[in-house]
Automatic annotation (TrEMBL), chain B:
Gene3D superfamilies on file: Aldolase class I
Keyword Protease: no
Family stated for the protein in its record: Belongs to the glutamate synthase family.
Protein's name in the database: Glutamate synthase
PANTHER family hit by this protein: ARCHAEAL-TYPE GLUTAMATE SYNTHASE [NADPH]
Top-level lineage group: Bacteria
Length: 247, 442
């Protein structure tokens, strides 16, 4: 199990070593110490290994991640897991702006809050935020699921295409007019597991909705698992589902 | 005597026929006009410059016999694998979605034959263009359609698009008529629904962030690829300076004559600088930072022939990029298709409704029947021929100016025919030593 101390090893050396791994590697669990808010740590991974980072990271940690599991035991800067294709990224603290931006697949879990533009331009990623998300989250979201256990800031889902948004708390009411109208499809679910039940129910609602005017995508990513949302009170009975579709 | 003579009916220069027709169209429809292409209005351009040539004061090189190099290296700053082009003319970014797959293949074939690069666009990388482009630049745009790390690694360079000349400050647009099954799949969009892209990148908001974004891209690609930054002609001195500060290895500067697949007519005609007015401030920024020829400058927007190429290089660019001209070389707006253009209510040379997907040339369309009209091999040969002619023309001018490489051309080789062009290009008005805004030669 390689143990890399970033206070000694240059970032370039770490990322180069990670990029040279093959799918058959035996070095499947890496531990990074003293990240010190460095940028682009574990960016561009392409193999199913686990990278555990003990501390907070800067911008673009796990950027464009594919297949790998990246565990951040701390908080993350701007653009954590941006453009993720697959795999799993877990931030135990808070995340800054643009978490999971443009993600095409995989699962991003944030135990704390996520700042503005969480899930902006998302294209298939699943994002679970146990806290709240800031303004412009899921802006121009195209596909995937954003699950927020806390509240959502201004302009949630502005100019959305076909992503699905689930918010347990409040959604700030000052969203653009088009988005507010679309939010008329929001319902309160007797939710026990929130994600899977919510997604399925939302899908059936949308299929019969006269308000969307858009054919549903043929597939719905449901890679959010019960395990991924452990730690929340599963008996909460108030989950707001907000599916906003662009005209 | 007959009736009192009447003055000739006189139309307004302000309310000309085009303006009147647009007012009527807007009044009838209630929607703004969308079209493709670049600015059609007349603006100061390379035609307003002349080369001086050689005489007693300067000896020319012998045409056809003495060498005049055209090759150029791009991305020599930071990148482990800079790009070497045999000619200083590249193919600009144009998306699959806007263009047919056949057109993308033809561009790749033609560019590769001449040893130069082609560029993806706002829609991801297709196998056709990767397979037929020996040097392929992969664009990272605000929309991030089709962006994935695998394509990033198999590209030869990465171009971060911040703006383009036709619409600096605007995002992309692809109307539903061109969102076919394949385009929808590549862009994660529903078929047949209008697509409007963001104008800002989703995960960075200023030059300090951009610097970190570039660092990420370099880390992901192990510092091998040149990183371009493309900007529209807006505030070129500051934009180029910030691009350099952010770590760009190449800056692409696009003037308002540069084409787009689709945007608002008002945007195309009224926002941004003509390329002639943008080059010298950009070069000044490079020089002020000690980066001229270290960070390469590619300019685009209205490049049509070898003279335009030579003039752009003389003003300080390292290479040019062509888009509209390349499409014309493939067959766009060909008079041979006049009958088809007439059916669309236009005429060859004026057709610009590229967004509607009915291009009879098979270039700006996703209609299988129309796109099948374009033979990628023939199109590739035509583009290669055109690139060869442009290169020979630029060499002809360079030799006449006694330059052993086209990159040795300089502003002293040029004069301007108009005061406006003299001021923009910072070269003297022909027959004088007057450079408006300056007392001496630059």
């Amino acid at each position: 199990m390689p143990d890399i101390d970033l206070s000694v090893t240059p970032l370039r050396e770490l990322n180069a070593a990670l990029h040279q791994l093959t799918p058959e590697t035996n070095e499947r669990h890496w531990v990074i110490e003293h990240p010190a808010g460095g940028h682009a740590i574990a960016a561009g991974l392409n193999v199913p290994v686990t990278v555990e980072i003990n501390g907070s990271v800067g911008y673009y940690c796990a950027g464009m991640n594919k297949l790998a599991t990246v565990l951040v035991h701390g908080s993350a800067g701007v653009g954590v897991a941006e453009n993720m294709m697959s795999g799993f990224v877990h931030v135990s603290g808070d995340a800054s702006q643009a978490a999971g931006a443009r993600g095409a697949g995989g699962l991003l879990r944030i135990d704390g809050n996520a700042s503005s533009r969480c899930g902006i331009s998302m294209k298939g990623i699943d994002i679970v935020v146990q806290g709240s998300v800031g303004h412009m989250s899921a802006f121009m979201a195209q596909s995937g699921n954003l699950v927020v256990f806390g509240d959502a800031g201004d302009s949630l889902g502005d100019s959305i295409y076909e992503a699905r948004l689930f918010v347990r708390g409040s959604v700030k009411a000052s969203a653009p007019i088009a988005s507010r109208r679309r939010c008329a499809t929001s319902i309160r679910l007797p939710c026990t597991t929130c994600s899977l039940v919510g997604a399925s129910t939302a899908r059936s609602i949308l299929a019969s909705s006269s308000d969307t005017g858009r054919p549903a995508r043929s597939t719905l990513s449901t890679s959010i698992t019960q395990e991924s949302i452990d730690g929340r009170d599963a008996e909460d009975d108030a989950t707001q589902v907000c599916d906003v579709r662009r005209l | 005597m007959d009736a009192t003579p009447r003055t000739t009916p006189r139309k307004s220069a302000t309310f000309d026929d085009y303006s009147l027709s647009e007012i009527r169209r807007a009044a009838a429809s209630g929607i703004y006009d969308i079209r493709g292409g670049g600015a059609k209005r007349k603006v100061p351009h390379f035609d307003d410059l002349l080369f001086l040539g050689a005489s007693i004061s300067r000896y020319p090189l012998e045409g056809y016999r003495e060498k005049c190099a055209t090759d150029v290296w791009l991305g020599t700053r930071y990148a482990q694998k800079p790009i070497h082009l045999k000619i200083p003319i590249t193919i600009a970014g144009m998306s699959f979605g806007s263009l047919s797959a056949q057109a993308k293949e033809a561009l790749g074939r033609g560019a590769s034959k001449m040893g130069t690069s082609t560029t993806t666009g706002d829609g991801g990388m297709t196998e056709e263009e990767r397979g037929h482009s020996s040097i392929l630049v992969y664009q990272l745009l605000p929309s991030r359609y089709g962006m994935n790390p695998d394509d990033l690694r198999r590209a030869d360079a990465i171009e971060i698009v911040i703006g383009q000349g036709a619409k600096p400050g605007g995002g992309g647009m692809l109307l539903g008529q061109k969102i076919s099954d394949r385009v929808a799949e590549m862009r994660t969009l529903p078929k047949g629904i209008d697509q409007r892209s963001a104008c800002r990148h989703p995960d960075w908001t200023g030059p300090d962030d951009l610097e970190i974004k570039i660092q990420e891209l370099r880390e992901i690609t192990d510092w091998q690829k040149p990183i371009y930054i493309k900007v529209g002609g807006s505030r070129p001195y500051y934009d180029v300076a910030l691009a350099i500060k952010s770590g760009a290895t190449v800056v692409v500067l696009d003037g308002m004559q540069g084409g787009t697949a689709a945007t608002q007519e008002v945007f195309i005609e009224h926002v941004g600088l003509p390329i002639l007015g943008a080059i010298r401030p950009a070069v000044q920024a490079l020089q002020d930072l000690g980066m001229h020829r270290k960070v390469q400058l590619i300019v685009s927007g209205g490049i049509r022939n070898g003279a335009d190429v030579a003039k752009a290089l003389a003003l300080g660019a390292d290479a040019v990029s062509i888009g509209t001209a390349a499409l014309v070389a493939l067959g766009d707006n060909d008079p041979a298709l006049e009958e088809h253009y007439q059916k669309l209510g236009t005429t060859a040379g004026a057709y610009d409704d590229w967004h509607e997907g009915q291009d009879p040339s098979g270039i700006n369309t996703q209609n299988p029947e129309l796109s099948a009209r374009l033979d990628p091999q023939l199109g590739g040969r035509r583009l290669a021929n055109y690139l060869a002619v442009m290169t020979l023309e630029a060499q002809t001018i360079a030799r006449a100016a006694a330059r052993a490489t086209v990159h040795n051309l300089e502003p002293e080789d040029l004069v301007a025919l108009t005061v406006e062009a003299a001021a923009m290009a910072k070269v003297p008005l022909a027959g004088t030593d007057w450079i408006p805004g300056s007392k001496t030669y630059e």
